[in-house]
Specification:
286 residues; alpha+beta; Uridine Diphospho-n-acetylenolpyruvylglucosamine Reductase, domain 2; Uridine Diphospho-n-acetylenolpyruvylglucosamine Reductase, domain 3; Enolase-like, domain 1; 3 domains; 5-stranded antiparallel sheet; 4-stranded antiparallel sheet; binds flavin-adenine dinucleotide
């Protein structure tokens, strides 16, 4: 199938983007890499008479590093971020990107587009949530920041207001003795994950000074496993990771879909968390 007719707008300034979104309201949609939006339009799951293509807005394609964070512009392609030296300072982000589809998808898909699209099986929303990233939104009222913990509302729904775009994401840097891992189960390499876990730890000897555990594919948003993080920090680096996996899985209420049953997702959740933590701890120790 083909998408219904649309008018393509190609502004070069962010003010023009905001102006076009205000002018066309619900008839307009932001087009970034097009790797989710265009298939949805081609399948007639969505139709928008006006697409506001943000690819020519140079200010949205910058990557910059400061002492405490790396700021990635919304329009930075996933393939560029995958190889970028500043993004390498955010190892969880660098490790997550290769799990997204295939290279062809990542060469068009953007960091901001993935996070704004807010698919609960996607890796980059989970990275943002795990690392307590700050989402920068630009709209008619100017620029504001939204904590990742408040950004993901439900499947494909975010805290962006009407007329706002996601303009950048700030990923905080973790200190020395940290390790990170992404573990997924997918039917084939390149498929969306049926379920996945992203983990990060910072060690201070045998003490776990910091931990994050976030799961994908088990709810309508990525899920941060706060109880499991607290148990790991309380128990230290030699804690039985099967226990931590069970604590992470206990509150989850995954759904059935065409790809996997809720029962399967519930069953494998503890193991996938254990695997991610095992790898993150191994990296932190090294
Ligand atoms: C075959 C295939 C396999 C894939 N596998 C995976 C996978 O394994 N994991 C994964 O995470 N993703 C996967 N994807 C999706 C891919 O990562 C997309 O690139 C991503 O979800 C959307 O990014 P995009 O830049 O292409 O956004 P688009 O498709 O252009 O936009 C997606 C949505 O986000 C909105 N949007 C985009 N940018 C902004 C912005 N800056 N501000 C506000 N709204 C915005 C659009 O209006 C639209 O609603 C796959 C896609 C395909 C086609």
């Amino acid at each position: 199938m083909k998408p219904s007719q649309f008018q393509h707008h190609a502004p070069e300034q962010i003010d023009e983007v905001v102006g076009l979104l205000a002018e066309y309201g619900d008839d307009a949609k932001v087009l970034a890499g097009g790797q989710s939006l265009i298939p949805m339009m081609a399948l007639r799951m969505a139709a928008y008479p006006h697409l506001v293509d943000i690819a020519r807005v140079a200010s949205l394609s910058t990557i910059s590093a400061s002492a405490g964070a790396v700021r990635v512009g919304a329009m930075v392609r996933q393939s560029r971020a995958e190889r970028d030296a500043s993004v390498a300072k955010v190892p969880l982000l660098a490790k997550a990107i290769p799990h997204i589809g295939h290279f062809q998808i990542r060469s068009r898909g953007t960091v901001g587009g993935s996070i704004a699209h807010a698919d609960p099986a996607s890796e980059l929303p989970a990275v943002a949530l795990a690392l307590d990233a700050r989402i920068e939104a630009t709209g008619p009222g100017g620029v504001r920041h939204i904590d990742a913990s408040e950004f993901f509302l439900s499947t494909w729904q975010t805290a962006l207001d009407d007329g706002e775009i996601l303009s950048a994401v700030e990923f905080p840097l973790w200190g020395a003795n940290s390790g990170f891992a992404v573990e997924e189960i997918a039917r084939r390499k390149g498929d969306f994950a049926l379920i996945g876990a992203l983990a990060g730890v910072t060690l201070d000897g045998a003490r776990v000074a910091r931990a994050c555990i976030t799961m994908i594919g088990v709810g309508s948003t990525p899920i941060r496993c706060h109880d499991a993080e607290a148990a790991l920090i309380a128990g230290g680096a030699d804690t039985d990771l099967d226990d931590i996996g069970r604590i992470a899985a206990a509150p989850l209420t995954p759904a059935d879909d065409v790809h996997a049953s809720a029962e399967y997702r519930q069953h494998v959740s503890p193991a996938i968390v254990r695997r991610a933590l095992t790898a993150a701890l191994k990296e932190a120790r090294s």
